[in-house]
Amino acid sequence: MRVGLIGFGAIGRSVAAILSGDAAVDIAGVLVRPGRGATVGPDLPPGCRAVETIEDLLALKPDVVAECAGQPAVAEHGPAVLAAGIDLIVIAVGALADDDLRRSLVETAERAGSRIHLPAGAIAGIDGLSALAIGGLDEVHYTSVKPPGAWRGTPAEARFDLGGMTGRTVLFEGSARDATTDYPKNANIAAIVALAGIGLDRTRVALVADPSVTTNCGRIDARGALGTLTLEMDGRAEPGNDKTSASTAYSVARTIRNMSATVVI
Fold first, then answer.
1. HEC per residue, 141-203
2. In CATH, what number is assigned to the domain containing residue 97?
3. What is the share, in percent, of the chain residues with pLDDT greater than 90?
């Protein structure tokens, strides 16, 4: 399995490190910003090339490309990957809250015979949620709780004193569509929960800052015709990026391994 990575920041580096010892996976290349190709060279897996255009990445003939660079990268590079008949793994699922972009990517994939893979990321229970959705869901709530510092650089910083926060504070309540649009680096899980369940507009989301926690916590509460689902996952943040949980990179690695596995779980 030849793999291309879009982005070589915290998540991209972690994915490459996790898969580096897997004989069934070859990290063929990573797409980095112009001018950064030479600087990341020492950190690349053996045999991996750093390239600065999507055309050069596709020229390495990857079987799958994993986006590890954020929502703008999905719109910028996703169409070219899918049009080339190559499967695309999307980490920044919040980009698909843009209906026009999502529709365009799906249509491109259908024409080219490629597929779009959406890993669960830093949450569990997506399999159960999507099964309940087939039977009929009435409501889905997703709650994300992170330390105040993880919300820096978001709209919350202008509305709340994140540095002086002394208690649990709800920063946002609304639809999954608005959460992923307003908080693109913090609320991508809200999008995968919504797409697996009852949609971006019906899924309700709460984003919370809590100075008493040191980890990132995600909770799903769902109710439907087949029963209820309550799930809470608490995990440490990705080193160097407290907005993202460390388990995100492992979810990407699992998706890649499943694509070539004989037994898929």
1. EEEEEECHHHHCCCCHHHHCCCCCCCCCEEEEEEEHHHHHHHCCCCCHHHHHHHHHCCCCCCC
2. 3.40.50.720
3. 84
